[in-house]
Design a protein that fits this description.
The protein has 318 residues and is an alpha/beta fold. The chain folds into two domains: 3-113 and 216-314, Periplasmic binding protein-like II (D-Maltodextrin-Binding Protein, domain 2); 120-208, D-Maltodextrin-Binding Protein, domain 2, CATH 3.40.190.10. Helices cover 46% and strands 18% of the residues. The chain has 14 helices and eleven strands. Strands 7-6-8-5-9 form a five-stranded mixed beta sheet, with helices on both faces. The longest helix is centred in the last third of the chain and has 20 residues, at 231-250.
């Protein structure tokens, strides 16, 4: 086992709240006062992270400043991380792997697990498709390297089909939804809140859900530069996100309303995607590593990775 692996094993127990809180304590505040306020450039997907923190009132009295940038999906967020236009952001396990394999210098520093149902392959309500096997020879829209791409390939594999047994077209969420509703796509592989939006609007139904197909893991990932220069701020933010998540499930109606308002979607869709995800922030432990390695190995098996990726160096503690 490498020295990195030994180091990870020795320190992974420190991922609990007490360790992160300790890292974000008084010595950090003193360093901020000495050097001036740190600015953390936060990337977000569809406003979900900012909505969570704002609704739970976790953005008050920050010992640093946050500049927010919003992205419609993981791929443009990953591009921003690669360009160091943002310091960190939320990203699913599959797009994280895809970005790292492409050379993006980022690492995951916090992880959550959610119900995978809403990461799904959608079809129109009147579609004759009943199972994943019906996707053979059909067109599926999704973002390249996204968790939607991953679930599309997993759905095909579950029916004994290969990636080239369907026509995967790479489109951003808004374009893919339009193409599906207009009939120029047979299916759309996407994630929340897009799944809930399409369902509650009557535009689509779930053909294949992510349950049994996807680990449900999503991460907060930061650039190597940010981890080197803003590590304490990232540790503090991770703690705030965890507290906000706990608050949100104690205040479902209030949070659903706030989420709908902040990200601009109907309350019905906001509450549906929030409640069924049942997100839990967990430790970066050996189970997470094993699940992430399985995802990487699946990408290798379908040709999206050219060589095996060891996931251990892609995860760090703050």
């Amino acid at each position: 086992m490498s020295s990195h692996s030994n180091d990870f094993s020795r320190r992974r127990a420190l991922t609990g709240g007490a360790a992160l809180a300790a890292l974000a304590a008084i010595p950090y505040v003193r360093s901020v006062r000495a050097q001036g306020r740190i600015v953390v450039k936060a990337g977000d997907q569809k406003g979900n992270l900012r909505a969570l923190l704002e609704a739970a009132d976790e953005l008050r009295q920050l010992p640093y400043e946050i500049q927010w940038s919003e992205f419609p999906a993981a791929a443009p967020l990953a591009e921003a991380l690669n360009a160091e236009a943002v310091d960190f952001g939320p990203i699913g396990d599959a797009p994280l792997l895809f970005a790292i394999a492409a050379g993006t210098r980022i690492k995951a520093f916090a992880v959550n697990r959610s119900d995978a149902y809403g990461t799904a392959v959608l079809v129109r309500p009147d579609s004759p498709f009943k199972t994943a096997a019906d996707l053979k020879g059909k067109s599926i829209g999704t973002n390249r390297g996204s968790i939607g791409h991953f679930i599309a390939l997993k759905a095909l594999a579950s029916a004994g089909l290969k990636p080239d047994d369907a026509q995967v077209r790479f489109l951003p969420p808004a374009e893919a939804k339009l193409a599906l509703t207009q009939g120029s796509l047979d299916a759309w592989a996407t994630w929340e809140p897009y799944t809930a939006l399409a369902e509650t609007a009557g535009h689509a139904r779930v053909l294949v859900s992510g349950r049994g197909q996807w680990s449900g893991l999503s991460f907060l990932a930061a650039t190597d530069k940010a981890l080197a220069t803003k590590r304490e701020a990232l540790a503090d933010l991770a703690q705030r996100v965890k507290r906000a998540q706990a608050w949100s499930y104690q205040h479902v109606p209030e949070f659903s309303a706030a989420l709908a308002r902040i990200i601009g979607i109907p309350v019905e869709a906001a509450r549906l995607q929030f409640e069924r995800r049942a997100t839990r922030w967990i430790a970066l432990d050996d189970q997470v590593l094993a699940d992430q390695q399985r995802s990487a190995d699946f990408y290798l098996s379908v040709g999206l990775l050219k060589q095996r990726l060891d996931v251990r160096p892609t995860i760090t503690l703050v």
